[in-house]
Amino acid sequence: MTYLDEELRDAVVPLIKARQFDSAIRKAFLVLTERLRSTYTLPKGTDGEGLVNIVFGQTSKHHATMDPGQKLAQRNFMSGLYGVIRNKFSHGDHEASIAELEAALSSVNLCLKNIEDFKAVP
Q: Is 28 exposed, middle or buried (0-12, 13-18, 19+ CB in 10 A)?
């Protein structure tokens, strides 16, 4: 798991060792949400699709120089992750499989990497 973002790794490894995969998925999305809020200086209550729309939505002032198609793709990807993966484990009682855990962690990790990469672009 050394490939994971350090904050993400620190948050989820203890849960994975305890085989609490659903909790690890929820924690991964908390890390992503907090990273988006802190990177873009957004209020604490902002979450999920609304949060993603503020950062990557069509009317967003963030990433004004980003190619519109790329910006839309980032919005769709992150919004889809919140809707498909995060909501399943945050709003229901579901036990996560290894496949769901791997998909969630890899996807959140990619989002975290992208956020860092986007910060480097003026």
A: buried
CA–CA separation, 119 vs 106, rounded Å? 20
Give the number of C-alpha atoms closer than 13 A to the C-alpha of residue 83, restricted to the C-beta side.
10
Residues in the chain: 122
Q: In this predicted model, what pLDDT tens digit does every residue of 63-101 receive, in sequence order?
A: 888 999 999 999 999 999 999 999 998 887 888 999 999
Whether residue 114 contacts residue 74, with contact meaning beta carbons closer than 8 Å, is answered with: yes
